[in-house]
Each structure stands twice: as C-alpha cells, then as structure tokens.
Amino acid sequence: MNVKNSGLRMRYFSDEQVKKIHANAVRLLETHGFMVEHRGALEMLRDNGAQVDFERQVVKVKPDLIEKCMTSTVSRFVLAARDPSKDAIVETDMQRPVFRNGGGVDKMLDADTSQFRDMLLSDVIELYRALDALDFINVVSPLYPQDIPEKIRDIVVLETLFQNTSKHVNIRTFSKKNLDVLVRMGEIVAGGREKLRKRPVFSLFDSPLSPLKFPELTVDVFITAGEYGIPLYMANLPIAGATGPFTLAGMVQLLHAELLASVVICQTANPGAPILLHPLAMTMDWQTGLGLSASIESTMITAGSIQVANEIFNMPVDAHGPWSDTHIADSQSAIERTFQTLFPAFCGAASIAGFGDVQEGMAFCPIQLGIDEELVGFTLKALEGIPADDDRLCLNAIKRVGFGGNFMTDETTIKYLRTDYYEPKILNRLSREEWTKAGSKDINARAKERITKLMKEHQPQPLDRSLQEELRALVKSCE
After folding, report:
1. Is residue 176 part of a domain?
2. Consecutive H or E run containing 148
3. How confident is the model at residue 8 (pLDDT cuts 50, 70, 90)?
4. Taking 60 as the threshold, does the pLDDT of residue 113 lie above it?
C-alpha cells in the first residue's frame, strides 16, 4: 500500500493488479455472465449484441459492448437542491468528497431515553431538519418511519424530505408502481420533466443481489433513472464468505464485476445516464454468523474497490463510510468509523455516506450524528494536506520573532488563524477546571445538546405551499 502525498491518495493495488482485476471482470461477464430477471432488459441487451439465454435469464456480453458502455458514461454532474446554493457537484478525482447521512434505516436510538425503537414519522421530520441544518451534510438520504404503511412508505418519505430540507435528497423505492409516483413527485418540485432533467432534485438508489443477480425492480430503477436523467446511486453489497468470496481480493473482484454489469445495463438503456458507483462490502463473523459492516477487512475491501473503480471507470464513486458494528455511540464506534471515513476519502471517493448510523446500518443515532460532524471536520482537514508555499514556511516570521520569542502576535499567526486550523463544534479543549465548571460533559452529552437543539429549533426553507398541496394530493391518491 502506498500513501501518496500529492492529493493524499491511497492505493492498495499496483497498476498491473488493477488491470488484471478489470480484465478478469470483462472475461467473467463474457464467459459466465450475469442474471437479469427483466424481460425488457433481456431483449434490449440481445438487440445490442449480448448473448441472452431467456429461459435461464442469463446474459453474456462481449468486450466491445462493455467498452462502448464505459465510454458513454459521464464524469461530472450535479445533485441539484431545491435551494441552488446547496447544489452538490460530484465528479471523478474529487479532492473533497460530499457527504450524506446513512439512509434506509427504520430503527433509532432515542436521544433522550437511549431506547432502541421503531422510527416514527415525527422522528424523521425532526432528523431531516437537523440534517438540513448541518453544513457538512450535502445530501439527505431516506429514513423510513414504521408508523407509515409499507405500501406508501417510500412515497411519504420523499414528500417529507422535500418538505423538511432544501438540500438534494435521495430515495429507494419499494415497487415499480411507487417508482413512477416518485418520478412524478420530482417533476412537481422541479417544475416539470425537462426541468427535472436539467436540475434533478432527487436521486435514486438500488443494487443487484450478489453474486451477479439483477432483480426486476432493480433493473426498473436503473432504466427509469436514466430515462429521466435522475442520478443513480448504483450499489452492490456482497458479504465475504456468504454472498461473496472469502478473500479480500476476491471480494474486490466480484464488486468490480457487478459494477461493470450494472454499467452495461444502465448505459445500454440510456447512454450518458448520470451514475455514482457504490461498491460496498461486508464480512462474515464466523462466531455469530452475523454480517459485519465495520470490520477492518470490510473497510479495506471497500477502499480497494474505490481505488479500482476510480482508475477504471470515468465515473464518480460513492462509498458507505462510517458504519459501525456496535449498538451505540461508543469508543468501538469511534474506532470503526474513523477508518471507514478516512480510507474511502484517501482512496478518492466523490461521496461518502453513513453518518449517524450504528449497528451495521440498522439503527440511526442522533448522538452519533453529532459526533460524526467532528469526524468529517478532521477528515476534510487531513485531505487538504500541508500547503508549503513560501509565506507558510515562515522564514521571515522566524527571523522577526528572534531567539526565544513567541509567535502569538506575529502577522502570519493572525493571517492564518482561521484558515490553517480546524475549529471543532463539540470537542473538549477546556482545562479540567473549566470543563468541571461546565458540567463535566462527555462528547456524547455535548453531541446530544447540539443535535437535539437543531432537531427542535431549525426551520428549513419552506416548500412552496402550492407544491406541498400538489404533493399531498398525489400521496393521498396512493393510499
């Protein structure tokens, strides 16, 4: 592994190893293929030169089709927000990733009682307001309230997102019928189909089943996203030793092959469709049989996959970073999510998700979200590197201060006080005496105070009332 100072990039694999992983994936898709449970997609792929076994639903693709699909991808696009000042740009080789909370969660740790319980719509509204207020969150991902019927849960969640944040929002659907409704909701907020294409105010998320199986709904999402110009988080999630190979390198190999197959489907259907690759790995705990999201091996697999994706595809890469396998915001969580944020960032992820998640991404913890704000601050500061221009090398300042002096009032100290150092929100930097006078609060207590205040008091930019009414009428028609 090499850590490069220029741009702070980390590489697990050599150039030759990256080429081999890609060549293996191309050969795998040509000789072994992948399963597609979608008649229309099978016909589309056949018509574009793929070998299709309709009875087995297996597709085998030639290298020239793979190459054609790879060259039609886009390297830069906007994740548009209701408030244009909050747009998030994603592209390849980003020095500073954008961030989103952990989505897809329907359980939470109550900030007041520490109780592990179902997430309710009232919780979701408050959490979205907090996420809207936090500067480090660029994209708000879905949280799923259990007091809303599953039949319309994704629809209500998107409505709630649009109403409680002016940032770009992300959603995962539960059915093809609901997918069409979600697109219509996006058109309402954006101002029509063409405006949605120009400024996609929401994005979609879906993934195949490992290994190499694409369910019908996943393919519907892939094709629909491209048809409407909606950005797609194109994920995959094998578990080492279960739905993926046991070895770390084997997991990277499978992840790359699945991403390649996904690109073939998406770009054959809609060349130029905006996509974020989302390689994600878990490992198996052989003592409990549980999947681990935050083992160091999971982190290494994801980081290696990001490196390969960045060096092979001309597409931005999203990573699910700060998961943890523990159940609360504790020291274990701090250890795990530190590596899970830094490694993807140093491997060049354009976007990192997972903030606020604990328990393998199965629960959302508002206190953890508050702590994660500082983790992001540290990460962004580390990614800046150390500027070493003549002014910052301070030769003249050293001469000015002289022997045995101090730099407290030197002009370079004043000049760079606000730019060269990260200013934390909740970290303790008080003396013991001052800390004791302030109530001896640990980081969890300080995070709870900050996040609960935002949840209760922050008021997002309101959605136009006529749009609210149109969305509500559409949602009501689906009940």
Report:
1. yes
2. none
3. low
4. yes
Length of the chain, in residues: 479
Q: What is the pLDDT of residues 317-364, one digit of tens each?
A: 999 888 899 999 999 999 999 999 999 999 999 999 999 999 988 899
User: 80-112: per-residue pLDDT in tens?
Assistant: 999 999 999 999 988 899 999 998 999 999 999
In a domain, 174, yes or no: yes
State the residue for tokens 């992300």: 170
CA dihedral 93, 209, 131, 340 (to 10 degrees): -60
Q: pLDDT band at 32, cuts 50/70/90?
A: very high
**135 vs 318: CA distance, rounded Å:** 19
* Residue 101 · residue 369 · CB < 8 Å: yes
| pLDDT for residue 133 is more than 80 | yes
User: How much is the pLDDT for 69?
Assistant: 97
Is position 267 within any domain?
yes
Strands 282-284 and 291-292: antiparallel
Sign of CA dihedral 189, 191, 192, 198: negative
Per the domain annotation, does 276 fall within a domain? yes
CB 184 within 8 A of CB 155: no
Q: Which two tokens stand for residue 161?
A: 């997102």
DSSP 38: -
CA distance 80 to 84: 7
Amino acid (one-letter) located at 19: K
pLDDT of residue 418: 85
* % of the chain with per-residue pLDDT over 90: 91
Contact present, 310 and 341 (Cβ < 8 Å): no
pLDDT of residue 5: 35
Contact in structure between 322 and 375 (CB atoms under 8 Å): yes
Structure letter (DSSP) for residue 262: H
Give the whole-angstrom CA distance, residue 425 versus residue 132: 17
Tokens coding 132? 């809207």
- Which pair of structure tokens corresponds to residue 397? 């300042």
For the chain, what is the domain count?
1
Rounded to the nearest 10 degrees, the angle between the axes of helix 465-478 and helix 176-190 is 170
In this structure, are residues 319 and 280 in contact, taking their beta carbons and an 8 Å threshold? yes
Q: What are residue 320's DSSP bridge partners? A: 353
CATH number at residue 105: 3.20.20.480
CA distance 302 to 280: 6
Q: Does the structure show a pLDDT above 60 at 6?
A: no
Pair of tokens at residue 99? 């961030």
Nearest to 226 by CA among 44, 468, 474, 56: 44
Domain that residue 97 falls in: 71-384
pLDDT class of 7 with cuts at 50, 70, 90: low
Contact assessment for residue 468 and residue 188, using Cβ atoms and an 8 Å cutoff: no
